[in-house]
Amino acid sequence: MNDHDAPEEVVWQGRFIAAKKRGKWEYVSRTRGISAAVILAIDDGDVILVEQYRVPLGRSCLELPAGLVGDHDEGESVEVSAARELEEETGYRPAHIENLGYFHSSPGMVSEGFTLVRATGLTRVGEGGGEGDEDITVHRVALAELTAFVAERRAAGVAIDVKLLTLLGPALLRSGGVEVAL
Predict the structure, then answer these.
(1) Rounded to two decimals, what is the model's pTM?
(2) For tag attachment on the chain, is the N or C end more exposed, with fewer CB atoms within 10 Å?
(3) What is the CATH classification number for the domain harbouring 128?
């Protein structure tokens, strides 16, 4: 029997994640069918980023704003969840949310995927920072300065989320390698 046909076993399950095994493969998934929305928020040549402490990394991480879909309301659409999360995390309310597709960030280890959306027509309606103890720092960065900003945050010890490659990709390709951008 190959791993494709092996039964899925739940090795451990908590409130938010489950550790699973199928054949020799071990991986993690979200519980309760919850998924995530990741928000590419662009406004007048700037991108809105967030920085927050991530326990699994043991340090802060620079990221695109994101949030869970269906954790507040099971019937909530990706677009409504994304708009709500963007406002909670960054203080910006979008006029439009466009679904850009579903993606997987680490398919060899995590079954979770996320829907990438583009938020446009942003209006600042609050300070952001997240809910409760999230302690999110909001960064508004000119796209032309993004590569330098990411390098500066990395030099300060901040982790960089892989989803920032959606914005850094062209600079990495032009440089012929990763030395310039990283």
Answers:
(1) 0.88
(2) N
(3) 3.90.79.10
